[in-house]
Amino acid sequence: MIPVAEPKLGGNELKYVSECISSGWISSLGKYIQKFEEEFSNFIGTKYGIATSSGTTALHLALEIFGIGKEDEVIIPSLSFIATANSVEYSGAKPVFVDSEPRTWNIDPSLIEKNITKRTKAIIPVHLYGHPADMGTIIDLAKEHDIVVIEDAAEAHGAEYKKKKVGSLGDVGCWSFYGNKIITCGEGGMITTNNEEVMEKAILLRDHGMSKEKRYWHPQIGYNYRMTNMQAAIGLAQVEKIEEYIAIRRKNANIYNKLLEDNKNITLPIEMEWAKNVYWLYSILVDKIPRDEFARILLENEIDTRPFFIPIHLQPPYEKYGKKRLSVAEDLAKRGISLPSAPTLKRDQIEYICGIINEALS
Ligand SMILES: Cc1ncc(COP(=O)(O)O)c(C=O)c1O
Q1: Are 84 and 126 in contact, with CB atoms under 8 Å apart?
Q2: C-alpha distances in angstroms, 299 versus 154, 260, 295, 303, 360?
Q3: Chain centroid offset of residue 173 CA
Q4: pLDDT tens-digit profile of 41-57?
Q5: Which atom of ligand 1 is nearest to the CA of 187?
Q6: Which of 39, 122, 247, 257 has the greatest CB tally within 10 Å of its CB?
Q7: Which of 161, 346, 352 is nearest to 271 (CA)?
């Protein structure tokens, strides 16, 4: 079976993790945490990086840092992984779902303003499947309405908007290092920011709100959202290879594009002129036959695929906010499918996959 995703652990992972074990520093103190935070935030181009236990906890922490909670509203795209909305729900605020832009599949910036109310405190653009959201428009709107921008960059390590890396553009960037991501720690996350106050608050809240000056003094309720030294050791080894892993994904996307571009029943992923797409998952839209039938044909040929996310406004826990029709997100969710995208993927495998696809959708 050719997998949709699998990690490439081809660098110093084993060496660094072994060092954690032989030194006894396996918990959430140890040199790799700071090193990983420094190296990753350097790569993104922010002053600070604060490692967390997951991408979901990074998002929740970000909302807590800005004091977002009950009575507040947070604008998010409906077409995302459910963690984007769940983090808002954990904070006590209400997620407000916005439809997608049909070419990039990201939040449609032209629909944001009409969803802004007096209660709107934040917007969480998601850089879906590796393509950046239209950050210029989003940041302008946020400035105009005094709204915080929390980038959900879980799927877009190294993606760029107008030559600047995502995760450095909003007030904070939130990252996931789950096993299928562009770089991984197994499980893990990070907040990146240029704001010193945000960094201080993140450190406080990820460790039970414990005061920096006085041990076991907790001026506010915090969380245990810490990353372990062992996770950070893997993360550091992965950052050392990040440029290479991104280059492989972009090269593979190019091969897919060339082999599928003549097929009239496929919409290829886009790279807007202002964007660098990192193709976390190389994804297409299929016509002619139902997406699930298409997936079944590929599976019969030992090719794994992944359907698009089901829009969050349609998920049972979010029905309480009322029925909404978000026609672009719903259509993308029906036709969208992610193809094998792992950095371990070889050219002959892509040729084989595209051969099966072009036959199925001829
Ligand atoms: C868009 C998006 N946001 C948030 C998350 C949550 O990250 P984690 O699984 O590390 O909690 C993920 C991925 O898993 C994601 O794809």
Answers
A1: yes
A2: 27, 19, 6, 5, 12
A3: 10
A4: 999 999 999 999 999 99
A5: 10
A6: 122
A7: 161
Are 170 and 139 contacting, i.e. CB atoms less than 8 angstroms apart?
Answer: yes
Inter-residue contact 127 to 153 (CB < 8 Å):
yes
Distance 82 CA to ligand 1 centre (A): 8
- End-to-end C-alpha distance for the chain, whole angstroms: 23
Q: How many Å apart are CA 103 and CA 106, to the nearest integer?
A: 8
Q: Which atom of ligand 1 is nearest to the CA of 87?
A: 4
pTM of the complete model beyond 0.70: yes
Residues 212-263: pLDDT tens digits?
A: 999 999 999 999 999 999 999 999 999 999 999 999 999 999 999 999 999 9
- Substitution site in 4, 57, 61, 81 for ligand 1 pocket (most atoms within 8 Å of beta carbon): 81
Helix (H), strand (E) at residue 199:
helix 196-206
**Residue 312 in contact with ligand 1 by CB distance below 6 A:** no
Distance CA 106, CA 98 (A): 10
Tokens 């604060």: give the residue: 50
- C-alpha distances (whole Å) from 29 to each of 17, 68, 73, 226, 350 are 14, 29, 36, 9, 42
3-state secondary structure of 62: helix
